[in-house]
UniProtKB/TrEMBL annotation:
Belongs to the peptidase A1 family. One of its GO terms (molecular function) is aspartic-type endopeptidase activity. This is Peptidase A1 domain-containing protein. One of its GO terms (biological process) is proteolysis. Gene3D superfamilies: Acid Proteases. PANTHER family: BETA-SITE APP-CLEAVING ENZYME, ISOFORM A-RELATED (PTHR47966:SF51). It comes from the Eukaryota. InterPro entries: Aspartic_peptidase_A1, Aspartic_peptidase_AS, Pepsin-like_dom, PEPTIDASE_A1, Peptidase_aspartic_dom_sf. The active site is at 57, 234. Residues 39-362 form the Peptidase A1 domain. Residues 1-16 form the signal peptide. The keyword DNA-binding does not apply. Keywords: Aspartyl protease, Hydrolase, Protease, Signal.
Amino acid sequence: MIITVLLGILFQEAQSIRYQIQRHQTIMDPIHDIHQVEYRVQMQFGSQKQPMELIIDTGSSDLWIPSIDAKGFLNNVNRYDCKGSSTCINTHSSYSVFYDDGPISGTLVWDQVWMHNIKFNQSFLLIERASGNMASSGGILGLGFNSNAANPNPSILESLYQQKLISKKYFSLYLKDEGEFGSYILFGGIDMEFIQKDQKISYVPLISDTSYLMGIEGMSIDDELFSITTALVDSGTSCLTVPAVAMDDMLQVFAAKGVECSYRVENYAPSYCTVHCFVNATNEQGIIDSFPIIKIRVNSSFELLLNPQDYLYSCTILDGSQSKCNTKLERSQSDDILLLGDAFLHSYYTVFDQTDKQMGFAHSINNKGLKLHVKTRHLVNFAQMLILYIALLLVI
Ligand SMILES: *[C@@H]1O[C@H](CO)[C@@H](O)[C@H](O)[C@H]1NC(C)=O
Ligand SMILES: *[C@@H]1O[C@H](CO)[C@@H](O)[C@H](O)[C@H]1NC(C)=O
Ligand SMILES: *[C@@H]1O[C@H](CO)[C@@H](O)[C@H](O)[C@H]1NC(C)=O
């Protein structure tokens, strides 16, 4: 109790910057209920305070913003004009970074950057060429380690620290899974108001000096373990992306519990989660009771729990006996890395600590409050069509 109070006072006195995150949702396919969701912050660049929207990405380390000189793409996003800022210094040196969604390249500039009313001198990269899905994204705020960046100059987090705007190199994330507003990033602090009252933050050491990579034992259902050796906390990934072998084994356990899942092979959208499931239940409680609790096992004494409400995205009641649920799970072909994307960050308030090389986790206030979205598919049958048609004729 005394320790909690003391910590509370310490955190209040330490400098921190709280920043609002906007949840941006694009509907890719209304029939299959597929959305692309991104979490963005807005910052201002240059003497004219040009507003830019940046995707927050803990999986990369560079700050990119679209350049006014980018030809033939990035037409629907704000683009920064170095010549329009009296404080901009263009170094004319080129950099490129390969992301999972495609490459980006462009030049390095220095200018002043505004976060609310806080101004600091920052170097960043201008997007001049991009391909693949990167060609349609706006800016990117890489929150990873400086040592992993293409740009050799201080990252935003490093700049905030060096310019004494925060007293330790860390930040924490609270992401909501619905609504446009209400998500926050706090640089240099921890926001206890987003953590469940009975919870404390548990820390897991990083096994890398350059990324938010943790050593884990795997995922488990009941007492069955599906081995995975590492997990990366990545806000730039939407889903909980599970290595193929572990995912396949896990879905067999689902099947044994009466939940039949499969994954889409077609690529609807890069960030959509591909696993969907059929279950013999037709109401919210029935569905929740059918799905198992999934655990991410860090070690034998520490596990991160995901309830069905945490990893189910939405369910549709198909007929009198069955429902189809879209999950926030995705099967990955690559590596032995579990990607803890936004789907995970919805349930856990997460601390990214570069100074002490550790990740902190606590159940966020969402974890109890997530509501399962259940809807009924309405089929318009022939009789209803006929009545509609006659009604229309009568009106005319
Ligand atoms: C920002 O930093 C760069 C590199 O140190 C320097 O050349 C430039 O003058 C600085 N700009 C401002 C406005 O302080
Ligand atoms: C398990 O992980 C937790 C969280 O990082 C740590 O506090 C604990 O010491 C670890 N226990 C073992 C047995 O390694
Ligand atoms: C679910 O319902 C289908 C169709 O009625 C049936 O074939 C299947 O065995 C049921 N599954 C379970 C686990 O009850």
